[in-house]
Specification:
about 190 residues, five-stranded parallel sheet, globular
Length: about 190
Amino acid sequence: MRIIFLGPPGAGKGTQSARLVKYLGIPHLSTGELLRQAVRQHTQAGTLAEPYMSSGQLVPDEIVLKLVDERLASDDCLAGAMFDGFPRNLRQAEALDRTLKAAGRPIDLVLELKVDDADVIKRLADRGRSDDRPEVIAERLRSYWNQTRPLLDYYRQKGILHTIKGDGAPDEVFERIKSAVAEAGGPQ
């Protein structure tokens, strides 16, 4: 099963997607983690991405698409994968669709984890990462709403979008996610 997980930064995608990949037995493709790893390892992509990340801007599509394409070529992605933080815009979504269509492995489900902006700001401020300064949080939310929000309409038109309320205890949220996966043909 190939699943895309959408939602603003700090919505709990990392927590819930980790639970879901374990439940489904598929790899977790977090572009945020792929990018942070590239920065830590001082790869060419990491060097290019670091100035964007430290200022709260989205990393250019070319860099992100290269990292994702390389990861999708791995054998462990043949049966499915969870995309977390990707795609972030329509161009990336269309590029991903082309790649997966060519491989005969389309997206099965898109989950939107919906959380109010005020809750997102509080969650991010509380986690204390160096890239979670107030001005960076505000820029990331603006970027999310401006660039990522149109994806919801794109996937809604394809009939594969399920919106999940992200408030409540993590177990409650995960039960909502499992129900959406079952509706999309995954395990019940």
